[in-house]
Amino acid sequence: PGPHTDDMVKKLKERRDYSYKRLRQIEGITCNNPQGAFYLFPKIDFSEFTKWKDDKEFVIDLVKKTGVCTVYGSGFGDEYGKGHVRLTFLPDLEMLETVYNLLEDFLK
User: Fold this and answer.
1) Low-confidence ranges of the chain (pLDDT < 70)
2) pTM of the entire structure?
């Protein structure tokens, strides 16, 4: 480790913390704070958003209408992934803000 590594870790923690906070502000989404991954795995409350039958339909509609690309959680197995989406927090804060704004508007 050196200064570059320390700087990158600091940036990633900032992006993780921002992403976690921002996702929790979006109605109908719950999210755990990741402790060692470069992504978040928020749960979408599909009882509240009935225009999508599942997470796969949701991510397809999201990318078609907003350009925001996520991975549907059920692709990682129904037991833990069903109803979730996978989002990375590697982009810079400006891009993350844009993504979360698009996601929030999409859910309205």
Assistant:
1) 1
2) 0.91
